[in-house]
Amino acid sequence: MERAVAADLSVYLFFLGQGHSRERLALATVVEAEESAPQVPGASAVVSAEGLAAGTVGGGAVEAAAIRAARAALARRSSRLLAFDLGNAYSAEAAAVCGGRMRILIDGDPEKHRPAFQALFRAVRAGRSGVLATHVRTRPAAVLRRWFPESFRGWASLSEPWRGCRREVEAAARMGRPVWEKRKAGWLYLEPHAPPPRLLIAGAGHVGRAVAWQGKRLGFEVTVIDDRPELANAEAVPQADRFIVGPAARSLRRLRLGDDAYVVIVTRGHRHDAEALRACLGRKAAYLGMIGSARKIGLMREEFLRRKWAGPEDWDRVHAPIGLPIGSRSVPEIAVSIAAELVAVRRENASRVPGEKRPPLSRKP
């Protein structure tokens, strides 16, 4: 199966955040990766004259070579494409069996593309999608970038090299993963970007707070819901983007769910968990998980089916007991198991072809 990929916005954000500094930076981006390459398209790194400043393009010998090339490009304000055959010298140098091939784009002067990166972040913050397009001319080497917002209508007025790119840009947006294509005068690299998935955490107790910390690091927009104002606030959960103070069930019922919503139910008691779950069952969500022992989950399932609050197919969608079975006991371990399951489901969802039907991830007995 092709690995699901998404460009790392945090690296671009780091680059933009250095605008006040006089230090010049280069940008390295994996634009193509095949077989068992150590990174995926969209992985990026910022390189200064001193070395790696943020991000990664794979580590080991590949990254060392990319950093050397980026520092040289930075000195000349030039750009180049690096190609790696990982079945030969580089895997041997790294003392690892990698295999596959990679291309890394080195942009020695990304500062001139700052408006395109800024347009990307304005769109994502406003909840809009789009595609960051990069044209790579090989002779002479040059890089051009442009942000195409969703439903872009100005195709007829575009000049080269963007004229005639509509089909490729719209296809990349539909697929939701980076695209690398040969063009007459070079290459076209397309990165689709969308607002981050929403992590809705019902419960601001120890587990909820730990999951919020993990979720933010994983790129989710985090909302914490709890009826205790002393817990649902920025001082108690600094990683959260949004707080809703009120009963979990009522709050979840009022919220829009959908394919970008990941719901984690970790309230302070069995009754509150059940009420929150009832508010979500039968509605579309990317992920729905609830904490509890296998015995508790079994009893709750029996009650829901007996009272006709849910059908067997509804329970098939619930990740309960929540989290991957890693033998977790402490709060941090439970949060890690939940975060790992969120990642697994997010990657599975991202790898689906639009319209394709697949069974849900296998559930624990």
Assembly form of the protein: single chain
- In sequence order, what are the helices and strands, one letter per element? HEEEHEHEHEEHEEEHEEHEHEHHEH
Strand content: 25-35%
Number of helices: 11
Low-confidence stretches: 1-5, 91-95, 353-365
Structural class: alpha/beta
- CATH architectural group of the largest domain: 3-Layer(aba) Sandwich
| Cα-atom radius of gyration | 23 Å
Which sheet architecture does the biggest sheet show?
A: 6 strands, parallel
Q: What does this entry look like structurally?
A:
With 365 residues, this protein is of the alpha/beta class. It folds into three domains: 9-110, no CATH class; 112-193, no CATH class; 198-350, 3-Layer(aba) Sandwich (Rossmann fold). Helix content is 33%, strand content 26%. The chain has helices spanning 9-17, 60-76, 89-93, 114-125, 166-175, 206-217, 248-254, 270-280, 294-306, 312-316, 331-350; strands spanning 26-34, 44-48, 51-55, 79-85, 101-107, 130-138, 141-149, 179-183, 186-193, 198-202, 221-226, 242-245, 258-265, 285-290, 318-319. Strands 12-11-10-13-14-15 form a six-stranded parallel sheet, sandwiched between helices. Strands 3-2-1-5-4 form a five-stranded antiparallel sheet. Helix 6 packs across helix 11 and helix 7 (248-254) packs parallel to helix 8. The model is unreliable at 1-5, 91-95 and 353-365 (pLDDT under 50).
